[in-house]
Amino acid sequence: MKYLLGTFIILALPCLMATGETNEHRYEAGGSVYVCQSPGAKRFHCARSCRGLNNCKHTITQVSQAKAEGIGLTPCKMCY
Ligand SMILES: [Zn+2]
Fold first, then answer.
1. Full-prediction pTM beyond 0.85?
2. Which of these, 42, 10, 18, 47, lies nearest to 31 by C-alpha position?
3. Helix (H, G, I), strand (E, B) or coil at 59
4. Tens of pLDDT, residues 44-65
């Protein structure tokens, strides 16, 4: 019984910690994000150097993540 419990804790802990960390990073960075001012843009990016912004022919602006989500943008799959 002791052995089983130990195994469970060892298996479950890193998993729980990893999940918590991912979420924190995602929303802690929620300060500011980068968006392409193209009318077709649907994503916001965590970094100006993101590959997803390479094709942007318009101005890239820095806005708060809340604002980006407010106008219907979703996180870029390459940086989030
Ligand atoms: Zn991106």
1. no
2. 47
3. coil
4. 999 999 999 998 999 999 999 9
Q: Which among 17, 36, 29 has a CA at the least distance from the CA of 65?
A: 29
Domain segments of the chain as ranges: 2-75
Instruction: Share the mean pLDDT of the chain.
Output: 79
Which tokens is 66 given?
């809340």
Distance 68 CA to ligand 1 centre (A): 13
pLDDT, residue 80, reads 85
Distance CA 6, CA 12 (A): 10
Strand ranges across the sheet with 32-36: 60-64, 32-36, 43-45, 74-75
- Cα(36) to ligand 1 centroid in Å equals 10
